[in-house]
Each structure stands twice: as C-alpha cells, then as structure tokens.
Amino acid sequence: MKILYWITTVALCAIMLYSAQMYFFNTEMVQGFFKSFNYPTYIVIPLAVAKLLGIVAILTNRIKWIKEWAYAGFFFDLILATLAHHYAGHPIGLSVYALLILIVSYTIGKKIRP
Fold this sequence. Notes:
The chain is an all-alpha fold. The chain is 82% helix and 0% strand. It is built from five helices and no strands.
C-alpha cells in the first residue's frame, strides 16, 4: 500500500508541477485557454503558486489540515479543468486521469499516513 501511495502521490505532484510550470513559462498561452473557458486570466500566476505550495504541503505532511486543504484545492482545480475542457468540446485530458490519481493517493494516504 505504501508503494502505491507514493507512486500516486508523486504522479499527482508531477502533474501539478507540470501544470504550474506551464502557467509560469507559457503564461500567454494559458491565459488564452482561460479566456476561452471564460475564466479570469489574472488567476493564472496565483494558481501556479498555489499548486507549488500544495505540492510542498502534500509531500512534507507537516501540518495535517494544510495537507487536507491542498488535496481539496487540487480536487477543485481538477474538477473545474475537467468541466472546462468538456464544455469546450475537448477530448478527455490529463485532468481526468489526475483526478483519479488524486482520489487513490488521498484514500490510501488516509489509511497509511498518521
């Protein structure tokens, strides 16, 4: 169970890190996506920072309630991303798979991590 937990947790964090770096280094492109989804573009950089902080909170496991909020933030981010892509007519993307990975990581983590 610990191996599965760490595989899914590292995979989730890698997906979020990939997303954050896209937000930082391809900001104009991401803002274009946000505009097409009718999301405000000013949240791109703050969302990237929040993703980085969420990764740190989940991997360090120092403050339990912060880790819970990080998982919740990732959950809502992935739900909104999945819905935005769906309504835009895009095929199933990485956000759907990341959502499944998040659920596995969170549920196993609740069982094995104090």
